[in-house]
Write a structure and sequence with these properties.
- Strands 1-22-19-24-17-14-13 form a seven-stranded antiparallel β-sheet, with no helix packed on it. It has a seven-stranded antiparallel β-sheet with strand order 2-3-4-11-6-9-12.
- The chain is globular and about 55 Å long.
- The protein has 291 residues and is mainly beta.
- It contains three helices and 26 strands.
Length: 291
């Protein structure tokens, strides 16, 4: 009989803050507090539904650097444009994902999609930071556009909901994202009153982020909306039940990277000397240009 993964902590955040002028986000966890406990996941920001008025100047975040990790951006409502110093660019809308590898260093900007901005509307999205092992922190930067139609969906038993597999594998169905270390990223919808049991690898770290609705985990712990449940690595199963309304979750599960973390702003390395080098590389223009 498989052992249950127990909850070690539930964190809720009801204090949003602005990232640039286009993303009103709730930070559910960060590397400063949970970098080791949730490795390889470093940070999770959730931009809950926010209405923006029409504008000819797209809101968002201007050019900024990253090095040593990956960013994963998921759009639920609205539209985003991305461009970076490798020459890559892309537009993603509801259900789409962009997976950017900062690697040895990159400059990029993220803005509301231009035509969407002119009309205005509701923006809802999430961004995850995923660490890279030391041997891959100097990898060439790269970018994956993962469109909605490329992401497989598994229907839960008894019509209880769906699971979209962005990365990793769920019940034999594989997601499209290419990753450096084993990770599972599931976009789950669970209907009110329904439950499901997830089988997750022994020894992997797990964060169950509840973005809307509320769920009961393992039959006894209620996790509200805009909160994250951190599970112990030990065990292989977790039971999830949606309570009085449909629930939306993003489930993060990955093999830990057992290495030191040194972080400063947009740089995540293994030592302070490497952080200093990243800052010098940025100042020297070694991360490219974004005109």
């Amino acid at each position: 009989m498989a052992k249950t993964k127990q909850i070690s902590e539930v964190i809720q955040n009801d204090q949003p803050h602005w990232v640039g002028d286009g993303f009103r986000v709730y930070s559910l966890f960060s590397m400063q507090e949970f970098g080791r406990k949730l490795s390889p996941f470093l940070l999770f920001d959730y931009a809950a539904p926010t209405t923006y008025t029409p504008t000819d100047k797209p809101r968002g975040v201007d050019s900024h650097p990253h090095k040593g990790f990956e960013t994963v951006t998921i759009v639920y409502q609205g539209g985003l444009e991305h461009r970076d110093s490798t020459g890559s660019s892309g537009t993603i809308g509801p259900g789409d994902v962009q997976w950017m590898t900062a690697g040895s260093g990159i400059l990029h900007e993220e803005k509301h999609e231009r035509q969407w901005s002119k009309k205005g509307g509701v923006m809802q999205m999430a961004q995850l930071w995923v660490n890279l092992p030391a041997e891959n922190k100097s990898s060439p930067p790269g970018y994956q556009t993962i469109l909605k139609d490329q992401i497989p969906t598994v229907t839960l038993a008894d019509g209880g909901g769906t699971v979209r597999i962005i990365a990793g594998e769920y019940e034999g169905t594989k997601g499209p994202a290419k990753t450096f270390t084993p990770v599972n990223v599931y976009d789950m919808r669970l209907k009110a009153g329904h439950s499901t049991t997830l089988k997750l690898p022994e020894g992997y770290n797990t964060a169950m982020t509840v973005l809307d609705g509320a769920v009961k985990i393992n039959g006894d712990t209620l996790v509200p909306s805009v909160a994250v449940a951190i599970l112990d690595p030990a065990g292989e199963e977790v039971q999830i039940e949606a309570t009085d309304r449909d629930a939306m979750l993003l489930i993060l599960n990955g093999r830990p990277i057992d290495e030191p973390i040194a972080a400063y702003g947009p740089f995540v390395m293994n030592t302070t000397d490497e952080i200093k080098e990243a800052i010098e590389d940025f100042r020297a223009g070694k991360m490219g240009r974004l005109d």
